[in-house]
Design goal:
The protein is α+β, with helices and mostly antiparallel strands. The chain has one domain: OB fold (Dihydrolipoamide Acetyltransferase, E2P) (Beta Barrel). The chain is about 20% helix and about 35% strand. It has helices at about 30-35, 80-85, 90, 115-125; strands spanning about 10, 15-20, 20-25, 40, 50, 55-60, 65-70, 75-80, 100-105. It is globular, with a radius of gyration of 13 Å.
């Protein structure tokens, strides 16, 4: 299971990478593996400001649909345009081309509440 050390993680299996006051968000390798083949990405929240733990979108896989949650509060400033035509990028490269959204942080201190790689590994190992 791939769990990059340079990212932070939510208990709902989103990852976050901070670049200045922007956070890049996607789902973890573990989450995409559990969902199976992702066939559709539904994000209707562009330009909306959402609180931590609010639903920002949904992923449709062959056998299920799963909500995706905000790991931190902020305004969704960008969606990954590749995912409209190639949702499978989330399965193929969850930490690279499969990123989902970019958020302008409203409370950067919330990042400190997220899990590091070791804590996330403990979470999924139980």
């Amino acid at each position: 299971m791939n769990i990059p050390e340079n990212l932070r993680y939510s208990k709902e299996h989103e990852w976050i990478k901070i670049e200045g006051d922007i956070a890049i968000v996607g789902i973890t390798d573990y989450a995409q593996d559990q969902l199976g083949d992702i066939v559709f990405v539904d994000i209707q929240t562009l330009d909306e400001t959402l609180d931590r733990d609010e639903v920002f979108g949904a992923l449709e896989a062959v056998k299920t649909v799963a909500d995706t949650f905000m790991p931190v509060s902020g305004t969704i400033v960008e969606m990954n345009p590749i995912l409209e035509d190639e949702p499978q990028k989330i399965n193929e490269d969850p930490y690279g081309e499969g990123w989902m959204i970019k958020i302008k942080l409203t409370n950067p201190k919330e990042v400190d509440d997220l899990l590091d790689a070791a804590a996330y590994l403990d979470l999924i190992s139980d």
